[in-house]
Q: What sequence folds into this?
């Protein structure tokens, strides 16, 4: 017997393959680890003829990775802070607002 809704089966299979979505904190931690690794690569050296020299090609790529990663890291930190502030405001607002509809104080026109 064939599946009555193959579209839903494909979507379920795709969700299963992708796994659970990560959180902003997961992304922040992973990006920080990547920035640390790029910083280590910035100091990389090559050994030629028994002489250790800075690896300029790797250093330039590390500089680019750091600049891109730092911008992304700043955005992730900002989003995390905004989410925390929004959650605090929502909690504060729910404590102050009385239940029921809000009335603007204006009469009917």
A:
């Amino acid at each position: 017997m064939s599946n009555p809704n193959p579209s839903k089966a494909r979507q379920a299979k795709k969700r299963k393959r992708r796994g659970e979505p990560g959180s902003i904190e997961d992304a922040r931690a992973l990006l920080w680890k990547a920035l640390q690794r790029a910083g280590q690569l910035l100091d990389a050296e090559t050994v030629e003829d028994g002489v250790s020299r800075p690896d300029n090609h790797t250093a330039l790529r590390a500089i680019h990775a750091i600049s891109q990663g730092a911008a992304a890291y700043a955005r992730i930190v900002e989003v995390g802070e905004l989410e925390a502030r929004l959650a605090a405001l929502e909690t504060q607002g729910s404590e102050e607002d009385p239940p029921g509809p809000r009335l603007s104080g204006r009469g009917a026109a």
